[in-house]
Amino acid sequence: MMGWALGVDLGGTAVKVSAVEPSRGLIGHERHPTELGSGPDGIVRQIALLVSALYGRFAEKLGPSLFLGTGVGAPGAVDRQREMLSYPPNLPGWERFPLRSALERELALQGVPPSPVFIDNDANTAALGEARFGAGCRYRDFMLVTLGTGVGGGIILDRQLYRGAYGTAGEIGYLTVDYRGESVHAGVRGTVESLIGKQQIVARALGRYREQPRALWNEAVHGEELQCLSPRTLEKAARDGDRVAQRIWNEVGSILGVGLAGVVALMDIRSFVIGGGISGAGDLIIGPAREQLLGSTLPSMHEGLDIVPAELGNQAGVYGAAALCFG
Hints:
The protein folds into 2 domains: 4-129 and 315-323, Nucleotidyltransferase, domain 5; 138-310, ATPase, nucleotide binding domain (Nucleotidyltransferase, domain 5, 2-Layer Sandwich), CATH 3.30.420.40. The chain is 38% helix and 22% strand. It has helices spanning 39-62, 99-109, 122-133, 192-196, 198-211, 217-220, 231-239, 243-267, 283-295, 316-323; strands at residues 4-10, 14-21, 25-33, 67-74, 77-78, 85-86, 96-97, 117-121, 142-147, 151-157, 160-162, 183-185, 188-189, 271-275, 306-309. The longest helix has 25 residues, at 243-267. The chain starts with a strand and ends with a helix. The relative contact order is 0.15.
């Protein structure tokens, strides 16, 4: 397919914009801190300025007539018309905001020629990025699961993004795996995210280490204070032989495996790509997840089961956002 597009990954920390071609992938990139204090209109202006700058860099080289548009991946709920962004985490003041039309107007003010603007949930765009350019290329059907501050997901069916009837398909983080667990999400108990989101992993580790002060953790992280514990230091502790850390990662992977088993049973999806910052723990998570998945599904469902790490890292979102324009 000829043409090129710009992909935007909007987050509470940074706005990333990339120029992407279907055949060559990412060919240009900008990243700037999100101007949270400027509110929705100010951030839309920031996005438009970055898009305009990158468009100016590549339009003459790649051909303005081949420009396919701008895609945006954003946290929070996106409506069925893919116009409104609602209640995105870490973006105050965005309770219900018409992101697509606001960005179209601002791009026109910045001199970007009229072109389509597409918006979608950031987990969906990450899944689409992995499907077109990353670990998902080998699968016709798969689910991307993102492990980070929260737990998200996007579903690819027949190589196309599947959004569901109301646009919320793939939200594995809100799937209950322990009905007696803590209530974190609007009264919903024991969700995957409430058990293996970043804060929950750290809280679990702090509790265990306070109970076992003689654990190897201090040596494993070169004497850092317990309060500095993070998934990264917990990963190092596990790889350095700390049994407490190893057990915690085993629990995280097992909980993930239970969630994936529900997806297998309901959707007959057999392939999973694991991304997000916490997925850097790699085999510490994927090994227990695979074992639990096998133990939580019928033998007749085992054929084709596969769990692999994502390949695009924190660029999956911009790849997928641009791919919204490729059709």
